Amino acid sequence: MSELHDLHAQLLQMLNELEELTAQPAPDEAELASLRYRLTRTSSARRKHVDLICSELKPTLAGSDAAALDALHDSNTAAMTASSEHISTWSLREVVKNWPGYCQASQALRRSMRAQIEAEKAALYSHLQDGS
């Protein structure tokens, strides 16, 4: 399985874990902090890997395939910005103060992250070899 496949699988598992955590009536601060840290690191690694793949593939593609990579790169950048804004807005202190608000914001970001992963799969998986 490729590195991108692995990163996607890890992220989807962590998003499921976050969904379970946010279904609780109150935050488990230690578990939430650990999970958010792992999500941030893995998501950053995925973004870097996607950018690398796009850079490597773009010269080999034409037309709509090249345009799809440009769109993917743009959505990747927008997702990074949204994630950074979410993290800065929802410090652990803010999460504890407004757990229901965080749960709602987290749900929206999880939905966005899942959509980004699906877009990456659609645009890139057919071009990947086992080691990519």
Please describe what this structure looks like.
The protein is built from five helices and no strands. It is an all-alpha fold. Helix 1 (3-22) packs antiparallel against helix 2, helix 2 runs antiparallel to helix 3 and helix 3 packs antiparallel against helix 5. The protein is elongated, with a radius of gyration of 16 Å. The protein starts with a helix and ends in an 8-residue tail after the last helix. The relative contact order is 0.17.
Topology:
Blueprint: H1 3-22, H2 29-57, H3 63-89, H4 92-97, H5 99-124
Helix pairs in contact: 1-2, 1-5, 2-3, 3-5
Task: Find the count of extended strands (DSSP E, 2+ residues).
Answer: 0
CA-atom Rg in angstroms: 16 Å
How many separate helices? 5
Shape: elongated
Order of helices and strands: HHHHH
Helix content: over 70%
What descriptive keywords fit this protein?
single chain, 132 residues, mainly alpha
Task: Give a short overview.
The protein has five helices and no strands. With 132 residues, it is mostly helical.
